[in-house]
Amino acid sequence: xxxxxxxxxxxxxxxxxxxxxxxxxxxxxxxxxxxxxxxxxxxxxxxxxxxxxxxxxxxxxxxxxxxxxxxxxxxxxxxxxxxxxxxxxxxxxxxxxxxxxxxxxxxxxxxxxxxxxxxxxxxxxxxxxxxxxxxxxxxxxxxxxxxxxxxxxxxxxxxxxxxxxxxxxxxxxxxxxxxxxxxxxxxxxxxx
Length: 192
Prior knowledge:
The protein starts with a strand and ends in a 21-residue tail after the last helix. Helix 2 crosses helix 9. A two-stranded antiparallel ribbon has the order 1-2. It is 50% helix and 2% strand.
């Protein structure tokens, strides 16, 4: 199986054609390099909230998450206290899971403390030289995502295992998992 034609006739990864939200995310963001602490913190947080849920659910709630988590500014979220956690648990616009909310606040403290070292740590797991996959090559984790999850947990990050780490790697451009015949090309990417 390979890429499928989208509404404009151009070939894309088939998952992107399941909903307009997916198509936009695929074409404009997924796999494009993210090199800021706040951008990486946002993607890590959203991937953590997605665990056990549909990515479409998270995409559709993304603006609510941004509002609830101070635009994913790690320094601001790091200052959240118990009252903020309770406020977030009462917010119907986001996923109201105490463990995920508490991990997001804790992780903001880790990211704020690490600063640019957080960006360097995440980007140290970039996969280069791997050919773009066919659909049969798709995976949920990799040796790099196992190592990345271990390193981030060692730095203090919570609620991040190898599968979530791999989804983060895909989202922020650490690995190019667009299918070989997908219209999105590595050379077309611009840092976010």
